[in-house]
Structures are given as C-alpha cells and as structure tokens.
Write a structure and sequence with these properties.
The protein is mostly helical. It has two domains: about 140 residues, no CATH class; about 70 residues, Arc Repressor Mutant, subunit A. Helix content is about 65%, strand content about 5%. Strands 1-2 form a two-stranded antiparallel sheet.
C-alpha cells in the first residue's frame, strides 16, 4: 500500500501539533494527551512503512499479519487523536481554525488508511477489532473529568454542532443575524443562539457589526478565506 504522506512530512505535522499545544495551559491534561496520541500515530506509521518496505528485515516474519495489525492501530490512533482535537477546538486556548487545519491534515492520512482496511477480509477485520481495537468512547470515558468541560455533555455536543453549521453558513454568505440563525434551529431560543455568537466572538472566530435590531455577525476577514459554493 502507498500512503500519500512520507515520514518526514508526518514528522513536520507532529512538530506543528506540538507548537500548537504550547498555547494550551501548562497543567492542562489535554495538552499532553494530544501529544501522546500524535506520537503513537507517528510511531505506528513508521513501523508500517518498515513492514511495507521491499526489505523489512527482521519484520519479515508474519509481515502480512503485522501490516494488518498496524493498519488497525493507525486507524485507532487517528480516532483518538481526532477526538482530542475536537475537544480542544472549542476551548479558548488557541484559534479554532488552527486546530481545524491540523485535524484536516490528519484526516487526509486517515482516508487512505480506511481505503486499505476495506481491502481486508471482513471476518479478519471484525475479529481483530473485537479482540484488540480500543473503543474511543472507552478512552474518553474518564477524560472529561480531568478537564474543564461542562457536565452536560449532550448540551455541549449540540452547541458544537450549531457552531459548525453557523461557520459553514458564514463561509457562503457575508453576514447573518440571530433571527436568521434561529430559523435553522427552531427548537433553540434566540437567547441561546446569542450566547453562541458571544462565545464565537470571544474566540475570535466571528465579529459583530451594528447595534440592536441591525446587529449582524460575520467571519473575521482574517479567518474567512475564499467563499465556497
């Protein structure tokens, strides 16, 4: 299998992630959890490259099984890393878009890994997942207890979903009002949506224009980038 990213490029991506986490609070557990997950992903990536090389040396014994195991390990590592980054994305430690950029770079690698997993026999894949793959939910189960995350996880997830959708809308239109967003989420009060906007303004994702009934919100010009269709 050919992976679209070589070792040196992935090392640079790992360094980029390390630089980003320097902006997290020093005693924040997520700062080190993300680094550990990235290190594990890099180590397994290099191991897989060795197994996949023309001359794997001592790794040649049971190389086929070793490749399959390593592919699943890489997929598991990505899911854990991506989940940690998703949590970090909604904190106030750094730019939302800086975290998103790193997420997308890792996602490109994961896409190729998923394509390779599909080539494995269905029975072999299922048996390996049941025996060795650690569910992401199990890894994250106790983690929120050690960081400042609102106790109502379902409410937080809904808030994150709303923000994602608002950002996607603002990438396509210049500006929007609370009332217009309320039509997208009729089950949510305008007061809640205003709080969402206030938090996004504090995070530097959007900016507020006008006053009272003529208040609009738009993506910050430095963050908006090109409009997409």
């Amino acid at each position: 299998m050919k992976i679209s990213m070589d070792k040196n490029t992935l090392i640079e991506l790992t360094n980029k992630l390390y630089r980003l986490t320097l902006l997290f609070p020093k005693k924040e557990p997520l700062r080190y959890k993300i680094r550990e997950a990235a290190d594990e992903f890099l180590a397994n990536f290099i191991n897989f490259q060795v197994l996949n090389s023309p001359n794997p040396g001592g790794y040649a014994v049971n190389a086929k099984a070793g490749k399959n195991d390593m592919i699943f390990s890489l997929e598991r590592d990505f899911e854990i890393l991506d989940s940690f980054l998703e949590i970090a994305k909604w904190q106030n430690w750094t730019s939302y878009f800086d975290v998103l950029e790193i997420q997308e770079e890792y996602a490109k690698i994961s896409k190729n890994l998923k394509e390779e997993i599909k080539k494995l026999g269905k029975n072999e894949a299922e048996s390996f997942q049941q025996a060795q793959m650690i569910p992401v939910s199990a890894v994250l189960k106790e983690f929120p207890k050690r960081i400042e995350i609102p106790p109502k996880e379902e409410e937080m997830a809904e808030m994150a979903s709303r923000k994602e959708r608002i950002i996607n809308v603002l990438k396509r239109i210049e500006r929007i009002q609370v009332g217009e967003v309320n039509k997208l989420f009729p089950e949510v009060s305008k007061r809640t949506i205003r709080r969402d906007f206030q938090k996004m303004v504090k995070q530097g994702i959007i900016e507020r224009l006008g006053e009272r009934n003529n208040t609009f919100y738009r993506l910050k010009l430095s963050e908006a980038g090109p409009l997409t269709g």
